């Protein structure tokens, strides 16, 4: 396992569209392991492969509900409701901003065995799904912020995505 360098805003890789994964091989599994390790090390609740410089449609999430979520080639198939709250991103260090997203998200994806899976969630998990899927299309949350980006307060223990 290895911690990978997290690309930050201004890095052109973050604005690119990631390619679908065709097969999961040893290298893919290594990337997934490294993504989880990097996410935990940096205090994130989600990470998308382009954030570590890999333009593949892979997302890892752990929002603290006791599950580790892996989404390969995720496709959001249902969104409903609305939530407005502060959001952060490992690729935009030290900043936060208010973003309105759907409160419920349902996504079709593949697991590490390339079996189709369905992940659905509300609240933080739904927010994280939408934020991470945006990364795969080269979209950062800063383009969706209502008002100004604000400095993250040190005492805040909020989540980075
Ligand atoms: Ni992010």
Percentage of residues in DSSP E strands: 25-35%
Overall geometry: globular
Please identify the structural class as seen in this structure: alpha+beta
Low-confidence stretches: none
Number of helices: 2
Main beta sheet, described? 5 strands, antiparallel
- Give the domain tally: 1
Per CATH, the architecture is Alpha-Beta Complex
Biggest sheet: strands side by side, in what order? 1-2-3-6-7
Alpha carbon gap, first and last residue: 21 Å
Supply the CATH superfamily name. Peptide deformylase
Report the CATH topology name.
Peptide Deformylase
Kindly report the average pLDDT value: 95
Which ligands does the model contain, each kind named once?
nickel (II) ion
Q: What's the alpha carbon Rg, rounded to whole Å? A: 15 Å
The top-level CATH class is Alpha Beta
Count of individual beta strands: 8
Keywords for this entry:
161 residues, alpha+beta, Peptide Deformylase, 19% helix, globular, binds nickel (II) ion
Description of the molecule:
With 161 residues, the protein is α+β, with helices and mostly antiparallel strands. The chain has one domain (12-151): Peptide deformylase (Peptide Deformylase, Alpha-Beta Complex). Helix content is 19%, strand content 32%. It contains two helices and eight strands; from the N terminus they run H-E-E-E-E-E-E-E-H-E. It has helices spanning 26-41, 123-136; strands spanning 46-48, 58-61, 69-80, 83-87, 95-101, 104-110, 116-122, 146-151. The strands form two sheets. It has a five-stranded antiparallel sheet with strand order 1-2-3-6-7. The chain has a three-stranded antiparallel sheet with strand order 4-5-8. The mean pLDDT is 95. The structure holds nickel (II) ion. Nickel (II) ion (NI) is lined by residues 89-91, 131, 135, 161. The site of nickel (II) ion has 6 residues, from helix 2.
